[in-house]
Amino acid sequence: MGLRFTVLSSGSTGNATVVDNGETTLLIDAGFSCRRIDELFMEREVSGQDLSGILVTHEHSDHIKGLGAVARKYNLPVYANEKTWSAMEKSIGQIPDENRCVLGTGDSQDFGSIRVESFAISHDAAEPVGYCFYDGKEKLSVCTDLGYASDKVKAAIADSDVLVLEANHDIEMLRMGRYPWNIKRRILGDMGHLSNEATGELLSELMNGRIKRTYLAHLSREHNMLDLARMSVRGSMEDRGCFYKDSEFKLRDTYFDRPTPWDIVAEL
Prior knowledge:
Elements: E1 4-9, E2 16-20, E3 25-28, H1 34-43, E4 53-55, H2 61-64, H3 67-74, E5 78-80, H4 82-92, E6 100-102, E7 108-111, E8 114-120, E9 129-135, E10 138-143, H5 151-157, E11 162-166, H6 171-176, H7 181-188, H8 196-206, E12 213-217, H9 226-239, E13 250-253, E14 263-264
Parallel strand pairs: 3-4, 4-5, 5-6, 10-11, 11-12, 12-13
Antiparallel strand pairs: 1-2, 1-14, 2-3, 7-8, 8-9, 9-10
């Protein structure tokens, strides 16, 4: 079958994604209660019993809220780097030693025929990461919660067939919003979140004919909207001379309250 995935939900209230190739199924983050994650699984005909493990990007609650409960219920190994393990231990409860797995930043590991590589990102967490997934020549990259895209991030996600990429906020909506200034400054900073414009700028640098689709993820419910995100990202790309036809490249939505349809990475 090759790689396929569904973003179960994405946003400031919770994040979880499933990657599968017919033999191996992986969960990236578990930012909801165990009950809610099971509900999201059911919507995409997934069972926690099918999982080979859980990969953690960082320790913020919208990424690990249900991690401990899901891992214990289904007796799953959990993979994170050492600093993330230290930062989240008190929040997730007891995990058996045999299920406490360290995947260092920049390291790779094979899960059946899926190879997973982690890479460092810039965010105000202990040691946050994104992940690239490979199956043969197919490549999917999941990269959210980053204040800016460093050269190392760009190199890591280059040549992806499909991206799940943050487009967190509209800058003017954030500036005019009700958050206190210290929170706004954090979001806008280099260890915060990518704006729509910054996401468009990044995509314009990555467009090389291989990327087929990008899912705009982790949208703020306060400071962004689906239509605005798509329009702003595309406008930012066009401002930088990056024009495309919808038949060549697609921007797709993720949702805070429901999963995306299964997407087979190899499909055009």
